[in-house]
Design brief:
4 helices; single chain; about 60% helix; flat; mainly alpha
Length: about 80
């Protein structure tokens, strides 16, 4: 993640491990989890784009880290 491991911080392996866990859940045909954004869309409710992606984008900008997928997600979800 660009930060050194320390006792006070999140281990650098955290994001890779979390992504691997998430990926494994969604390729499992027996998985019944439905993401909250999809549930909102299915119910015709507004999805929480700002809550879910806004802080990621703001933090990335502060740290000068590109997050094109998050930016595109906000653009697509906010489009009318």
């Amino acid at each position: 993640m660009g930060f050194p491991d320390s006792q006070d911080g999140i281990p650098s392996s955290y994001s890779e491990n979390l992504m691997a866990l998430t990926r494994s859940q969604y390729v499992d045909p027996l998985n019944t989890h439905t993401p909250s954004m999809l549930l909102d869309a299915q119910k015709g409710m507004p999805i929480e784009v700002e809550v879910i992606f806004g802080e990621v984008v703001r933090t990335a900008r502060e740290l000068d880290v590109p997050v094109p997928v998050s930016l595109e997600s906000i653009s697509l979800a906010s489009w009318n």
